[in-house]
Amino acid sequence: MRSGTIEEEIRACLAELWPARADVIARMPADTPLWDEIDSLSLLDLVEYLEHRFGFRVPPIDFTPESFGSLEHIAAFVSRQLGGRRPAAD
């Protein structure tokens, strides 16, 4: 899934982190509030994944609903962190 969009990569990561909810994650609209669907430990695991995959650090001050409240918020946050550069393929 490395060649997919940032949103697709986030979905795949969440499905891997929380396989019991993979079907829900696959179908949820991008604007669904994640903090209502995904437990906080899975969100922390997602942050670790994003840091590793995209090569930036997420300061604790950025771990907010505005940045991590939904798939679309996370994808926008990652895009801002990348500063317009495309993610490298693994």
Itemize the secondary structure elements and their pairings.
Layout (H helix, E strand, L loop, with lengths): L5 H12 L4 H6 L6 H4 L2 H15 L10 H4 L2 H12 L8
Helix pairs in contact: 1-4, 1-6
Characterization of this structure:
The chain has 90 residues and is mainly α. The chain has a single domain, classed as ACP-like (Non-ribosomal Peptide Synthetase Peptidyl Carrier Protein, Chain A, Orthogonal Bundle). Helices cover 59% and strands 0% of the residues. It is built from 6 helices and no strands. The model has no long low-confidence stretch (mean pLDDT 85).
Provide a compact summary of the structure.
Helix content is 59%, strand content 0%. With 90 residues, the chain is mainly alpha-helical.
Write down the CATH topology.
Answer: Non-ribosomal Peptide Synthetase Peptidyl Carrier Protein, Chain A
Helix amount, in percent? 55-70%
Strand content: under 5%
N-end to C-end Cα span: 10 Å
Overall shape: globular
Instruction: Assign the CATH class.
Output: Mainly Alpha
Q: Total domains, how many?
A: 1
Largest pleated sheet: none
Structural class: mainly alpha
What is the number of helices?
Answer: 6
CA-atom Rg in angstroms? 12 Å
Mean pLDDT, all residues: 85
- Along the chain, the helix and strand elements come as HHHHHH
Model regions low in confidence, pLDDT < 50 over at least 5 residues:
none
The assigned CATH architecture is Orthogonal Bundle
What is the fourth-level CATH superfamily? ACP-like
Report the count of strand segments. 0
